[in-house]
DNA sequence: GCTAAACTATACAGATCTGTCTAGTATACT
DNA sequence: AGTATACTAGACAGATCTGTATAGTTTAGC
């Protein structure tokens, strides 16, 4: 419900009605709505990490990146797609909210995956560009309801990774520059 | 306030207090909060159109695109930056809200500007990729509070436009393919 | 100066929000 | 069997939300 309808418009009463659970039970297990939102993002991050782990089976870095964006493409084509749960949440919750740490953690995991696919240390421009590809694809595909946006981002990301890989190949041949 | 704090958490009472205006006056001039949100987005779109018009003075398409992203870069470095008002609003308001039309209009204007900078008809992959660059830069720069994200997107967009321009040059030399 | 429109402040309605509290019931362990 | 723990339903508090209504005041046109 947080993902489908938004965090702020999803009230506690609706949540417990849908969960078939008493209000006191919810507040026994979660300190408050903030903590519930954090748990929602935590579980989303776990599923995301599982996806990244599954993609780890693909040895070729560029292929792995392509498979990642292919997965996004399939997700964006589903009827329940509403964009990235993390960047959506970042719009709705305050920067100092407890759940915000989960959002930051997500981008760290994403950045590490991209750095790994590029074979770089992590904090360089190409990683940032792949993050832009991801985030832009999710946001624009949601708003325009156009899954082809994700396909375009996929091609851009793969081209970027390929260009990066061949450049690295060159500097491996002539190191010390 | 809609931009800084978010739409749903900004109540009417706070708006009229800040505006120094009575509640009845507000409801005499706007049908309701939805219409007020639409007006906010409409004015944001007007300012955006003015930016695009100013950039129209730059003749070279790639330079124009670079200037556009340079402007984003400067905006993202300010303390009040909170991402793109339109994609933020898209997270908070329903797809059938009256203000949603303004969001769609924004993306149409953006797409037209990009198509113009690329010299294409408009509905092709490169335009989608530039939209991805824009949207991803705004979203990620906001969340990570890292203006370098926008610089990375800028370089990506310019490289894309340059590659496109030289390819167009080639097909102009050998048309009919 | 008079009239009409638009403003002001503020009370109010009715809904919804998060979170607490009470009281009773089920479950699980020992 | 008995006890502790966790559940249930639901009332309630207090805040906040959008929007309306009342009543008085300012402003502008003629």
N-to-C terminal Cα separation of chain A, in Å? 53 Å
Order of helices and strands of chain A: HHHHHHHHH
Number of E-state strands of chain A:
0
Derived structural class of chain A: mainly alpha
Q: Helix content range of the residues of chain A, please?
A: over 70%
Mean pLDDT of chain A: 93
- The global form of chain A is elongated
**Radius of gyration over C-alpha positions of chain A, nearest whole angstrom:** 19 Å
- Oligomeric state as shown: homodimer
Strand percentage of chain A = under 5%
What does this structure look like?
The structure is a homodimer. With about 180 residues, chain A is mostly helical. Chain A has helices spanning about 1-5, 10-20, 25-30, 35-55, 60-75, 85-90, 100-120, 125-145, 150-175. In chain A, helix 5 packs across helix 7 and helix 6 packs antiparallel against helix 7 (about 100-120). The model of chain A has no long low-confidence stretch (mean pLDDT about 95). The interface between A and B is large, with 38 and 38 residues. The structure holds a DNA duplex (30 and 30 nucleotides).
